[in-house]
Task: inverse folding
């Protein structure tokens, strides 16, 4: 059974940092691209960024709103995905979802979601 | 960035109704379009990819169509478990972008 379990959320002051983790099980993490998607309270979904797999050199993509502040990394040996968030702003307050990408005829797309972890940025 | 516009933003329907949700992209995205269902307090669930292909385990009452800029999600016969918010998403290019959501409520 595929499982994605996020952790590391909590309350942080503006300007602070936080590192989220996502523990993956039930599939081979190294085969997959992985994403982070967030959802502000009562709002819609916003893509944060993506890390490709080893075969694609672990390259990353980011939304403009988080580029140069957030960093996605992974440790396939630990079946884990990470999101390092620096210089946090109040508008970063959201539930952060870890999402697996499936490979559908060479196209990588979101296919399995974790339950999310809440990050609150407030003084 | 490609803007995704869903309509309506909310709708009220009865059990057994046929429900149609539309999604329009600000530029052509071929069929690189996905649909997700999200119930309150839960993670989104993937329903459809490539505009019309159902993910494994998704019931056939859900169907999708469209290509280019205009897309449709249809629920053929609404059941109590289908009351939720539905999102479209384009994966044609970065950044990936979502529609604003359509909340399907009980009439």
Result:
């Amino acid at each position: 059974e595929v499982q994605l379990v996020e952790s590391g959320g909590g309350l942080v002051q503006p300007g602070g940092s936080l590192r989220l983790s996502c523990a993956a099980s039930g599939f081979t993490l190294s085969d997959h691209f992985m994403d982070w998607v967030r959802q502000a309270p009562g709002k819609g979904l916003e893509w944060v960024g993506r890390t490709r797999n080893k075969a694609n050199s672990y390259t990353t993509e980011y939304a403009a709103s988080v580029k140069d502040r957030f960093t996605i990394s992974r440790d396939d040996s630990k079946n884990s995905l990470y999101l390092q968030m620096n210089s946090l702003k109040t508008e970063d307050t959201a539930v952060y979802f870890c999402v697996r990408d499936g490979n559908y005829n060479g196209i990588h797309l979101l296919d399995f979601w974790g339950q999310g972890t809440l990050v609150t940025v407030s003084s | 960035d490609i803007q995704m516009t869903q309509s309506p933003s909310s709708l009220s329907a009865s059990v057994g109704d046929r429900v149609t949700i539309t999604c329009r992209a600000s530029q052509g995205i071929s069929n690189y379009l996905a649909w997700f269902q999200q119930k309150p307090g839960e993670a989104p669930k993937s329903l459809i990819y490539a505009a019309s292909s159902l993910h494994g385990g998704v019931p056939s009452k859900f169907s999708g169509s469209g290509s280019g800029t205009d897309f449709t999600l249809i629920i053929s016969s609404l059941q109590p478990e289908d009351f939720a918010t539905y999102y479209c998403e384009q994966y044609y290019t970065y950044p990936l972008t979502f529609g604003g959501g359509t909340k399907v409520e009980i009439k």
Remarks:
- Residues 24 and 79 of chain A are 5 Å apart (CA to CA).
- Chain A touches chain B through 22 residues (CB under 8 Å).
- DSSP finds no helices and eleven strands in chain A.
- Chain A has a mean pLDDT of 97.
